[in-house]
């Protein structure tokens, strides 16, 4: 009986150690501005190179698709609604991606060059939104 009691006390004592099994090392809770900053041009490039490139290309008549093609029917017929995925995806990449990261960088950085670069990128994001979405 003493052996079972001793074994149960040892088991409880060993298991009550402070283990960080619920902490994910791949998802840090606090990051520096130097790690957030590279995501800003990436979000802007995703918006400009994805939907806004095709959208602007058809309006500027840089290219046209053949009538039997079905890839860009909505764009070539200028069939846009407020819930169009083409513009909405680009809007989300700029607003929820780049602009949110810019605000994080401006709040966390002490480096003036990062602050000025974030301000210039913020102005460019707003220019893209005004030019393409009237926001």
Task: Give an overview of the whole structure.
The chain is mainly alpha-helical. The protein is built from 6 helices and no strands. It is elongated. The mean pLDDT is about 80.
Indicate the topology.
Layout: H1 2-15, H2 33-36, H3 39-59, H4 73-76, H5 85-108, H6 112-133
Helix pairs in contact: 3-5, 3-6, 5-6
Organism: Popillia japonica
Keywords: Signal
Signal peptide: 1-16
In a few lines, what is going on in this structure?
The protein is mainly α.
Low-confidence runs (pLDDT<50, min 5 residues)?
Answer: none
* Structure class: mainly alpha
- Biggest β-sheet description: none
What are the secondary-structure elements, in order, as H or E? HHHHHH
Features:
single chain; TPR-like_helical_dom_sf; about 65% helix; signal; Starch-binding associating with outer membrane; mainly alpha
């Amino acid at each position: 009986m003493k052996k079972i009691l001793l074994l149960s006390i040892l088991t409880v004592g060993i298991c009550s150690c402070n283990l960080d099994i619920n902490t994910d090392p791949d998802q840090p809770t606090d990051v520096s501005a130097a790690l957030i900053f590279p995501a800003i041009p990436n979000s802007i490039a995703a918006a400009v190179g994805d939907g806004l490139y095709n959208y602007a290309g058809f309006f500027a008549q840089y290219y046209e698709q053949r009538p039997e093609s079905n890839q860009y029917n909505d764009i070539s017929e200028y069939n846009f609604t407020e819930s169009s995925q083409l513009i909405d995806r680009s809007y989300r990449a700029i607003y929820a991606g780049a602009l949110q990261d810019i605000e994080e960088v401006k709040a966390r950085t002490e480096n003036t060059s990062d602050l000025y670069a974030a301000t210039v990128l913020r102005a460019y994001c707003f220019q893209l939104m005004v030019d393409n979405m009237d926001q």
